[in-house]
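Dear colleagues,

For the upcoming journal club I promised to circulate an example of a predicted protein-ligand complex. I picked one with calcium ion because it came up in last month's discussion. The inputs are reproduced below in full, followed by the predicted structure.
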Amino acid sequence: MKKLLFLWLLCSAGYLRAQQRPNIVIIVSDDHAFQAIGAYGHGLMQTPNLDRIAREGVRFDRAYVTNSICGPSRAVILTGKYSHKNGFKDNHSRFDASQDIFVKRLRTAGYQTAWIGKWHLETKPEGFDYWQVLPGQGQYFNPDFLTMDGRTIRKEGYATNVITDDAQHWLDGRDKDKPFCLIVGHKAPHRTWMPDTSDLGMFDNRTFPLPANFYDKYEGRYAAQHQDMSIEKTMRLGYDLKMLPDTGFGKGFFTRMTPAQRARYDAYYKPIEAEFLRQKLSGRALTEWKYQRYMRDYLSTCASLDRNIGRMLQYLDDHDLTRNTLVIYLSDQGFYLGEHGWFDKRFMYEESFRTPMLARFPGVFPAGSTINEMVMNLDIAPTCLQAAGVEVPKEIQGESFLPLLRPPFQAGRKSMYYHYYERGEHSVIPHFGIRTQRYKLIRFYDVADRWELFDLQKDPSEMHNLYGKKGYERITAALKKELAELAAKYEDEEALGLLAKKI
Ligand code: CA
């Protein structure tokens, strides 16, 4: 606390003299694992530009999402409300864009607003002076965009570069007398992890160590036993790993490439494919080969993301905007890089529940700080409203994290509430739960009613379900009570109904 106050006093003096309504830039990536960001210290790759945000701003080490999946997370970011309140519970939903979102309030207060890139909320954006979004999941190469005048246009290039170009183009043409709120939505590094042609092969000299629980047998964890998101069984050689791409599902990802792009891809992947076919791998050797290919493609896709974030930071520097712009970087959720043998997300286990989040607010956030308070994607909307001096409506369920980072340096929430709904791809059973500093209690339902309890201090990898074990009766009862209180606080009637049912 004293260190934060000291850092804050050092950085705040100039800002307070020149204070004006800040600009806001939010960069939302898709499926970016905190394990793949240099600043988080996992050593998988270097990300100098994301690290710059952490160095000049703050790194959140306990940032989480309310529902670990793409569309629902964006709906939570926009509304500051849980999925059951904003209506977008799973990726089969359609967002009611007429509802209250923080961007509309900023616009009413005089901000120029734009969303560019991945949107994934199905309905057209509302509340933005400008938008240009990918239809659905979008494409990595030569992506199509939906435009405000109802057309669909195709832009040649690699999605992460094209989206950044479009964001800068919008900034060039904005009214410079008004503050702005720009949200940049990246497709990267979402499945199928297609690297930019310039990044192919950049990790070929690396062999990535298997996570300690790569061969998890899921003992005592029913839902983990029944998922369909493992590198061994679910990950596809063609669709995901670009072997034999001329056949089967995902063919269109390649046929839409220009001849030059395709030639670069073939020059890189065809020799790998030939060697793979020659080896005739099976069993663990095949699974581990898939893991290495996954990591190389995924991290190469992240390298482009990091470079383009660098381009955005450089743009702010070049246009004298850095000093008065709040920059927030986050993913729509975390992602598994082989932990539990998985890729994908959805579960309330740490790697997918937690998201990377970095923020820079010169003169306000103490530079180079690490924040251990629990924050959520739910908090973005009230934080941005408060930063802009706009009243936060009482219906918003998130809490601004500004008071955690500047005097009075309040303590954050004591526990977090989570609810995942989707019944579909990857067969993750719906669940809701609570995480405190030390414990996590999860209630699975629908397909199977099950409880899970983890002591995150003793078992950070969540391998040992302690629910029903002797000695955990008191903590289980306390957590159930707190879970019910949170479900009541957030008015999650479905969860309250399930909690009323004894299992
Ligand atoms: Ca996602």
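Two points we might discuss: Residues 30-31, 70, 332-333 surround calcium ion (CB under 6 Å). The longest strand covers residues 23-29.

See you all on Thursday,
B. R.
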